[in-house]
Specification:
Bound molecules: zinc ion
Strand order of the largest sheet: 1-4-3-2
Number of helices: 6
Strand content: 15-25%
Radius of gyration: 17 Å
Largest sheet: 4 strands, mixed
Structural class: alpha+beta
Distance between the termini: 37 Å
Length: about 200
């Protein structure tokens, strides 16, 4: 997990966007869809390398889930879902290797989501697609995708099959304000990273 790369790319792009609030990003590998806030997700491209056999593979369906909250300052919690090797069946979830370019693209999309949601509802910026490299091994292998197994990944765009997502919308806006408390506690360790200089 390139957490530092994600955080510095996020801090960079947030700085350029000049939002009136401070925003932080942190990784939360336990993030689920049971929490309060605005959920946003993307699929990106990554490569994987098995820890047990020589196999490596590429996937353009690496699921990345974000939870956005804004209260006093903005927080984004992020979870990147892993995949395991279909050849040796060890069930060990490997971390995706995402190129700096694709991290940049994903953060760009995230920043525009923040912009559209909290500051400029009319922002019509198109999402950037992840760049793919090398060979893709056929259709998404749901059995070996952590996101699919937990019911996130392939259910995207089909809320009828995803009760967590479907039930979320009605409470979404009310939850934006109160949902930040837990996120702030979790992200507070990183809060100084892109904090704007405060006046003394
Ligand atoms: Zn393997
Ligand atoms: Zn999946």
């Amino acid at each position: 997990m390139n957490e530092m790369k994600w955080k510095s790319e996020f801090a960079n792009q947030i700085h350029k966007s000049e939002f009136p609030d401070q925003w932080n990003l942190c990784v939360d590998m336990d993030l689920s869809k049971q929490e309060r806030g605005l959920y946003y997700s993307q699929h990106t491209f990554a490569s994987f390398r098995c820890s047990f056999c020589p196999r490596s593979w590429n996937s353009s369906k690496v699921y990345v889930l974000f939870l956005l909250n804004l209260r006093n300052h903005g927080t984004v919690r992020m979870r990147i879902f892993r995949q395991d090797c279909e050849r040796c069946q060890q069930g060990f979830l490997e971390e995706p290797e995402i190129t700096p370019e694709n991290i940049k693209n994903a953060v760009y999309n995230l920043i525009h989501k923040i912009q559209k949601t909290f500051y400029e509802p009319n922002d019509s910026t198109q999402e950037q697609k992840a760049k793919t490299y090398g060979i893709l091994d056929g259709p998404h292998n749901r059995e070996h995708c952590e996101g699919c197994r937990l019911g996130f990944c392939e259910n995207e765009g089909n809320p009828m099959q995803n009760s967590a997502q479907g039930s979320f919308a009605p409470v979404l806006w009310g939850a934006l304000a109160v949902g930040a408390v837990g996120a702030i506690a979790l992200c507070s360790a990183f809060a100084s990273n892109n904090k704007k200089e405060s006046k003394k």
